[in-house]
TrEMBL record:
It comes from the Bacteria. This is Gluconate transporter. GO terms for molecular function: gluconate transmembrane transporter activity. The chain crosses the membrane at residues 6-39, 51-72, 100-123, 135-155, 175-198, 223-242, 262-281, 301-318, 415-439. InterPro entries: Glcn_transporter (IPR003474). It comes from Tepidanaerobacter acetatoxydans (strain DSM 21804 / JCM 16047 / Re1). PANTHER family: GNT FAMILY GLUCONATE TRANSPORTER, PERMEASE. Keywords: Membrane, Transmembrane, Transmembrane helix. One of its GO terms (cellular component) is plasma membrane.
Length: 440
């Protein structure tokens, strides 16, 4: 059997297991790795060895980062820090521009906090603003979603882009820089759809229920200060970026470079961010809550690490079997713009199985050989997969139901607002990818 056919059959197996049988992505990815290995006529002992080595190398490279990233997000979520950042964004632009504030809030909050959780936290706030300003909830909800979903697929330490950067061998600091840039375009396109299309619909997309929201929802007396809320998020990102920048402009023997190589390492930087959270927000949470958040974070991070590592195992099989190289050669001979390949794969996975994280990780795994075989900068694949992972959010995505239920919308309204906004967001990501391709 040809390598290309083995790859195609493997992808069919992955989709059938994940969609029809609803198997966990971890099991589906490992099973796919075994199938491709067997169909490629790899020795069974080599298949097992390759899978375990790919799994282990992935865990060693990003496992600790994911743990601290999840922990940082949980502290900001439980302490009210994420809500405080949203209030600050509204104050910065004014209530009349609340849709912009929602987009900015989502952009910031979804870096440390999962997009689903971010919407749960901020939806009551958006509804309160909607009642006060008479801005339709659909406009605020989609604007908020634009920011949340953009950084969810683009900016580490969010697990999806973090894992994709690891798969592609991209420096985390570089991924943050370019991912943040692309997320701005994606957020803007989503916000523009809400502001210039949904806003003209008036009350067409009216919530099914009108909850009475009092001014207490906007009260800040129970929230931490802005510095305590945003500093633990910005500190690790600053350290990681400073590490990347210092290595680029200073001699390797420099004392500063050596110091930053330690504290600016993504593992250490995020650990410092978690410590900053405990120091600044721990008193508000209480000792018992601080410990509970740690335990819960470890539990939730485990499943993310396992799925990501399974993607690493599949990537190792693709490399060893030659399937990745064969795919890259097929792309070279197809005449298609290379950047549309990772975009299309991520888009297809997103539409079919629903998870943006799985779409980003799997697409990065499958297209990683393109970077070497075609001699292109892997950051372009990173950005294209992120754009594809925002192709369409619908009924098989947990975020879709969080959005509809928390906003008071039915399924039809969710499809007419959130789902329809996603293709525009994907176009924003593709535009950013094209712009970056002009200088890398």
């Amino acid at each position: 059997m040809s390598i290309e056919l083995a790859f195609v059959i493997g992808m069919i197996v992955l989709l059938v297991l994940a969609i029809k049988f609803r198997l966990n992505a971890f099991i589906s990815l490992l099973a796919t790795a075994v199938v491709i290995g067997l169909l490629s006529r790899m020795d069974t002992v080599d298949i097992i060895k390759t899978i375990t080595e790919g799994f282990g190398s992935t865990v060693s490279s990003i496992g600790i980062v994911i743990i601290f990233g999840v922990m940082l997000g949980k502290y900001l979520e439980d302490s009210g820090g994420a809500h405080k950042m949203a209030l600050g964004a509204v104050r910065m632009v004014g209530e009349k521009n609340s849709s912009i504030a929602m987009a900015i809030s989502g952009y910031l909050v979804s870096i440390p906090v999962f997009s689903d959780v971010g919407y749960v936290i901020l939806a009551p706030f958006a509804k309160a603003i909607s009642q006060k300003t008479k801005i339709p909830m659909a406009v605020l909800g989609v604007s908020l979603s634009a920011g949340l979903l953009a950084t969810h697929v683009y900016v580490p330490p969010t697990p999806g882009p973090l894992a994709a950067a690891g798969m592609l061998g991209i420096d985390i600091g570089r991924a943050i820089l370019y991912g943040s840039f692309a997320a701005i375009f994606m957020t803007f396109f989503g916000w523009a759809f809400a502001q210039f299309y949904l806003a003209k619909k008036g009350d067409v997309f009216k919530p099914e229920f009108e909850e009475s929201v009092t001014e207490d929802n906007l009260s800040e007396q129970d929230l931490p200060g802005m510095f305590a809320s945003i500093f633990p998020l910005l500190l690790p990102m600053f350290l990681i970026l400073l590490n990347t920048t210092s290595k680029a402009i200073l001699p390797k023997e420099s004392t500063f470079v050596k110091m930053m190589s330690f504290i600016g390492d993504s593992n250490i930087a995020l650990a410092i961010g978690v410590i900053a959270c405990v120091v600044l927000l721990g008193k508000r949470l209480g000792k018992e809550k601080v410990l509970k958040v740690m335990d819960r974070s470890l539990s939730e991070a485990g499943s993310i690490i396992f799925i990501t590592a399974a993607g690493g195992a599949l990537g190792a099989i693709l490399k060893s079997s030659g399937a990745g190289t064969a795919m890259a050669e097929a792309v070279m001979n197809s005449g298609l713009p290379f950047i549309l390949i990772p975009f299309a794969i991520a888009a297809l996975l997103k539409i079919i199985q629903g998870s943006g994280t799985v779409a980003v990780v799997t697409a990065a795994t499958l297209t990683a050989p393109l970077a070497q075989q075609l001699g292109i900068d892997p950051i372009l694949i990173f950005l294209a997969t992120g754009a594809g992972a925002r192709s369409f959010c619908h009924v098989n995505d947990s975020y879709f139901w969080v959005y509809t239920k928390m906003s008071g919308f039915d399924m039809k309204t969710g499809l007419s607002t959130l789902s329809l906004s996603n293709p525009f967001m994907a176009l924003g990501g593709l535009l950013a990818t094209y712009i970056v391709s002009l200088w890398v």
